[in-house]
């Protein structure tokens, strides 16, 4: 009996680093609340200069990631946080407006898209208004249909010009196994349900 207990303790201790590594991997997949929103094509920004109504506009971010604004012309907004864009606009507008008090906000988020295709009830393109995981994404698409190979779902994710394929085993995750596969979706993810 003592040998079995000792073996169990050793097994638990041996698995602890794996559990910590799995927890670290899961934590890395969830963006922190402090993570800055990155502006993307299709978003609508509100930019205003205090005490100057002619410099208050709602501007759409074009597919090339640029916006147009009076006095400074075109500026790249896509791929930047709101605070980065604000600093750049302040710098470019300061020769025309001394000590500008500038406000930049995101009025409409239209660039956080995920695509869910294959054997789901309502395949399509979905706008993310909040952080959602794979299960929630599949729910947005009406769930898997009866012909889906639910333990063979793939998530295609572009990162730094390369595509990664992440596995998602629906039956396992809903059964409490491989919960680390239920990752937070990111802009541009494609979920394929075979």
* Broad shape: elongated
Poorly predicted runs: 4-34
Question: Strand tally, please?
Answer: 10
In CATH, the topology of the largest domain is named Outer membrane lipoprotein wza fold like
Plain-language structure description:
By secondary structure, the chain is an alpha+beta fold. The chain folds into two domains: 44-108, wza like fold (2-Layer Sandwich), CATH 3.30.1950; 112-193, Outer membrane lipoprotein wza domain like (Outer membrane lipoprotein wza fold like). It is built from four helices and ten strands; from the N terminus they run αββββαβββαββαβ. The strands form three sheets. It has a five-stranded mixed beta sheet with strand order 7-6-10-8-9, covered by helices on one side. The protein has a three-stranded antiparallel beta sheet with strand order 2-1-5, covered by helices on one side. A hairpin with a 3-residue loop joins strand 3 (66-69) and strand 4 (73-76). The radius of gyration is 23 Å and the shape is elongated. It starts with a helix and ends with a strand.
């Amino acid at each position: 009996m003592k040998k079995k207990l000792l073996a169990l303790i050793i097994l638990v201790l041996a698995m602890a680093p794996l559990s910590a590594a799995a927890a670290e991997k899961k934590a890395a997949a969830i963006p922190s609340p402090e993570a800055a929103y990155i502006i993307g094509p299709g978003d609508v920004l509100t930019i205003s200069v205090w005490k100057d109504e002619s410099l208050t506009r709602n501007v759409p971010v074009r597919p090339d990631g640029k916006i147009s604004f009076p006095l400074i012309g075109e500026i790249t907004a896509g791929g930047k946080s709101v605070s980065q864009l604000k600093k750049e606009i302040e710098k470019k507008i300061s020769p025309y407006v001394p000590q500008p008090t500038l406000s930049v906000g995101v009025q409409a988020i239209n660039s956080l898209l995920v695509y869910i295709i294959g054997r789901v009830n309502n395949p399509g393109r979905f706008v993310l208004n909040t952080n959602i995981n794979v299960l929630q994404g599949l729910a947005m698409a009406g769930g898997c249909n009866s012909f889906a190979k639910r333990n063979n779902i793939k998530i295609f994710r572009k990162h730094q010009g390369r595509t990664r394929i992440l596995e998602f085993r629906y039956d396992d995750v809903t059964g409490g196994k491989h919960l680390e596969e239920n990752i937070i979706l990111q802009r541009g993810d494609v979920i394929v349900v075979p």
